[in-house]
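Troubleshooting entry. The earlier prediction with coenzyme A gave an output that would not parse, so I re-checked the input for stray whitespace and re-submitted. Clean input:
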Amino acid sequence: MAILRFEPITERHLPAILEIENATHGLPWSERAFRNEIDSKHGVFLTVMLDHELVGYGSVWVAIDEAHITTIAVKESHRREGIGRKLMNRLLTDARERGATCSTLEVRAGNTAAILLYEKLGYQRVSVRKGYYPDNREDAVVMWLYELETWVPTP
Ligand SMILES: CC(C)(COP(=O)(O)OP(=O)(O)OC[C@H]1O[C@@H](n2cnc3c(N)ncnc32)[C@H](O)[C@@H]1OP(=O)(O)O)[C@@H](O)C(=O)NCCC(=O)NCCS
C-alpha cells in the first residue's frame, strides 16, 4: 500500500510543485513565491508525498489568532482520494498549535470542488469580493471557520 506523508517544502520539491501549479491555476504562483515559503516564519507550507511522488501541497499563514489558507492543490490524477481533506486537516491542526483560533480563505465562486471541500471541513461562506480575480474578474467567496479551538479534523 502506498504511504502518504507530509513534508515541509524544500528546494527539491520546487519542480514538482511548479508542474502542478502551472497545470492548475489561472494565476499561478511564481517559482520565487514558492521559494519564499521555504523556511518562512509566517506559517506552514507542506507537500504531500505518496511514496516518492509529490501529489499535493498547501500553505497556511498564521497572523496572531488567524490562520489564512493561502494555497492548496492536489495533482489532477490523484483528486477525490481524500488528499485535499487530509492536507487541510493537517494545516489547520498545525495552525491551531501555533495559536490560531479561526481560519479564513478566498476561493473562486465557480470552484465548486474546493467550496464543497471547505464546507465539509466546517468553513462557512461569509462574503463575496466582486471581480476579485484579475484574470477573468471572477468573484471570490470569502469563507471562515470560526471555532478552530474546538474544531475536530474531518474523517
Ligand atoms: C480542491 C482540491 C484541492 C480538492 O482536493 P481533493 O484531494 O480532490 O479532495 P478530497 O478527495 O479530499 O475531497 C474531500 C471532499 O471535498 C469535496 N470534493 C472534492 N472534490 C470535489 C469535486 N470535484 N466535486 C464535488 N465535491 C468535491 C467532497 O465533499 C469530497 O468528499 P467525498 O470525496 O467523500 O465526496 C482539488 O480539487 C484541487 O487541487 N483543485 C485545483 C486547485 C484548487 O482549486 N485549489 C483551491 C483553491 S482555493
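This one parsed fine. Residues 4-145 form a domain with the Aminopeptidase fold (CATH 3.40.630.30).
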